[in-house]
Recover the amino acids of this structure.
């Protein structure tokens, strides 16, 4: 039997007495953000002294043994024959890449080797051997199983300008999303706020204004018997925004194992067999941080997504 990845093991010291579990994971792991720690807690991937724990605020005592077990699905690799990334554009200020599905953007509990950030740092060191440690600014993320465009900065000044564009939502970001079921409206806007009932709980939506403002615009591109292909434009960029918004309207992203329907009998075998969420960041536009020029990039769907669409088109109505 193939063994899964070794857990990340952390032992609480005297200085950690009373510390919240999520903060302990962030500070002691060296690779986990607090949000990622909460996600792992919610997924049941963390044990405290051998027992599963999901409470982010759980206080620690000296000697407590905390283990982080990444689910087997989190080790999924890039589809065979597909490079982990492709550089779409590069200059002295920005780097635009097309990420393959199956690639983590930033470090995991097992380390940073093989993540997109790690691969790009190695790429920059090879491209610019005179620079001891080339600058690489991570401005935003997409999920491991989401493919498509990501923007990085290559200098601190550029990072500050681009970060402000993200804060002001002045960038253009469009996705292709295949959702479960036939979406009846040809176009529309979802403005449900994103909420959590508890720090370690799964994110959800609220239509009463509580939570963080999140706005998603969509239009139908193609309808199939049991699925709909949408063009999705983000006005805001919250974590899992697209996945949560469409799941909240009864049309989860095909292949979404977190927010999607858990009834394996729902939908066709073709949709159920797709191994990841059918979501692709296909368009990215931003103002260049140095020369002020508007930059716009588009990348095609990866082969697995294209193959799924072709199979749906060939299926009987």
């Amino acid at each position: 039997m193939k063994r899964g990845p070794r857990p990340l093991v952390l032992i609480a010291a005297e200085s950690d007495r009373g510390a919240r579990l999520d903060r302990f994971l962030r500070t002691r792991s060296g690779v986990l953000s607090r949000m990622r720690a909460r996600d792992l807690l919610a997924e049941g991937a963390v044990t405290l002294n051998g027992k599963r724990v999901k409470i982010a605020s759980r206080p620690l005592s000296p000697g407590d043994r905390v283990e982080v077990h990444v689910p087997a699905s989190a080790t999924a690799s890039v589809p065979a024959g597909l490079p982990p990334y492709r550089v779409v554009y590069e200059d002295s200020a920005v780097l635009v890449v097309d990420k393959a599905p199956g690639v983590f953007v930033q470090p995991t509990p097992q380390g940073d080797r093989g993540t997109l950030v790690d691969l790009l740092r190695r790429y920059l060191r090879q491209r610019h051997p005179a620079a001891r440690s080339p600058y690489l600014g991570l401005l935003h993320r997409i999920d491991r199983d989401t493919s498509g465009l990501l923007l990085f900065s290559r200098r601190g000044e550029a990072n500050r300008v681009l970060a402000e564009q993200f804060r002001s939502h002045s960038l253009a970001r469009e996705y292709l999303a295949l959702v479960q079921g036939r979406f009846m409206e040809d176009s529309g806007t979802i403005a449900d706020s994103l909420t959590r009932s508890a720090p370690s709980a799964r994110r959800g939506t609220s239509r009463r204004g509580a939570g963080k403002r999140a706005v998603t615009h969509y239009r139908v591109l193609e309808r199939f018997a049991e699925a709909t292909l949408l063009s999705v434009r983000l006005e805001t960029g919250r974590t899992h925004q697209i996945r949560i918004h469409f799941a909240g309207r009864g049309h989860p992203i095909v292949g979404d194992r977190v927010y999607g329907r858990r009834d394996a009998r729902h939908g066709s075998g073709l949709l159920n067999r797709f191994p990841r969420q059918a979501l692709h960041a296909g368009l990215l536009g931003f103002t260049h941080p140095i020369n002020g020029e508007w930059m716009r990039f588009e990348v095609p769907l990866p082969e697995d997504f294209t193959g799924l669409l072709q199979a749906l088109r060939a299926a009987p109505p």
